[in-house]
Amino acid sequence: MFANQVWWITGASSGIGAALAEALAQKQAKLILSGRNVAALKDVAGRCKTQSLILPFEATDFANVPAMAEQAWSWAEAHGGRIDGLVNNAGISQRSLAVDTVFDVYQRIVGVDLLAPIALTQAVLPRMVKAGGGQIIGISSVAGIVGAPLRSAYSAAKHGLIGYHDSVRAETAHLGIKVLVVAPGSVRTNVSKNALDAQAQTRGVSDGAIDNGMDPMVAANRILDAVAAGKRELILAEGMEAEIARMRRTDPDTLFDRMEAMIAAGYAKQMGAQK
What is the pLDDT of residue 143? Predict the structure, then answer.
């Protein structure tokens, strides 16, 4: 179903975004790859070996988003079609206690993880509806379902991302728009290494859970399988991470007790977020 479709992926320079680009290329899709690291985007495009547009831009340059969307749509039309799929994947995480965290962390993470995908979707959605439909994928997180310790800004943004995409799905399903929300657990990416600390500085180290997480290509193929199956939500997690997502909806009080116990047992110090 993906052959000759045009897919626009943000955060395409690494991690899940890069893996999705490769997985889509294997299915003969055409790609629009966005992010800030041009060299990394070129590397991904080279590995994909399919028709690609490298479209770098700063996700929170909201004034420039409509122009980027116009450029992307024009490229898609010139290559035989429309933008068939939009993947809102770009994001930044956090590892800090709320009581210690400066407000700039909240501004930056909400800007990148929530407002940026909203701005891009709002720029693409009317054209997608006019073209007869399309697929939107919002990459949230298990932390978008569970208020995860050390991730108050990240959880806030990813909860919002789920709410926004769920609303868009409800409003546009009859217009041919399909929306899949993905909530990954630990995937082997640089998300933890690139996370912000309490002072809005890049953390610079990874977590054991991330390092031992799901392979990004496994994640990417599961996402595309969910698209092909017409799913609207995918909890892309295993083990305890899948369990806590389930518990948030079925047994929240037990989950809240577990989260509180984690902090009481020294989780913040273990993660280097508290001295």
Answer: 97
